[in-house]
Amino acid sequence: MTKYLLGIPVLLLMIEVSRAGLLPGGLVVTREGDSSAYRFTYSVELQSKSVLQPGDYFTIYDFAGRVDGTETQPANFSFSSSPVGPTPDLLSPHDDPNVSNLTWTYTGKTVLSGEALLGEFSAVSLYPNKQSDDFTGQSHKESDGHFNNNITDTVVPVPSSVPEPSTWIMGGIGLIGMLGYGWYRSRTRSNVIV
With pLDDT > 70 as the criterion, what percentage of the chain qualifies? Predict the structure, then answer.
């Protein structure tokens, strides 16, 4: 019985950690006007017992096909993009240095506290296809003001998928078979005596 009681504080700590920090709420993908590009709009939330101070930020990693200058954000946030990071301390997201990351930084003069929807943040990509990738956030703990860094997953655009090598091999075998059959048919027709 004692070993079960010892696990309760650990469970409560896990619940506390899972609700802390900045988290992506929802994602909406829409075609951008008459173009062949797509706008990815993220809703971002500040979780309860968290504080957002000037300089706090969140990063969405590996946003492929980004169209420069199409980013939007609520008032009191600024946008930046880089191939690597920025990443809060002690976190290790998957970060491809060949694909742009999106970062929004809080620039407001006031401190936001408690559970709050921060608004919608968006960027345009050339690609409509989606896959899961990482999201990191830096905020502060309401209780003691220390950094509150977190990592979770979100959805990002990716280029159209390329068929796997086995698909190419099967296609090649099928093509060779069709060419062989065509050659066989042409040979058998030429041997027919009328």
Answer: 73
Please classify residue 7 by burial: count the beta carbons closer than 10 Å to its beta carbon, then call 0-12 exposed, 13-18 middle and 19+ buried: exposed
Separation CA 76–CA 22 (nearest Å): 16
Exposed/middle/buried for 190, CB within 10 Å: 0-12, 13-18, 19+? exposed
CATH fold of 2-157, please?
Answer: Immunoglobulin-like (2.60.40)
16 pLDDT band, cuts 50/70/90, is very low
What are phi and psi for residue 87, nearest 5 degrees? -130, 130
Query: pLDDT per residue over 126-151, tens digit each?
Result: 999 999 999 999 999 988 889 999 99
Q: Count Cβ atoms within 10 A of the Cβ of residue 130 and give its class: 0-12 exposed, 13-18 middle, 19 or more buried.
A: middle
Helix then strand then coil, in percent of the chain rounded to 5, is 20, 40, 40
Tokens 């990063």 label which residue? 59
**Residues in CB range of 192: below 8 A, 6 or more apart:** none
Instruction: Report domain extents, the chain.
Output: 2-157, 162-194
Closest CA to 125 of 19, 27, 15: 27
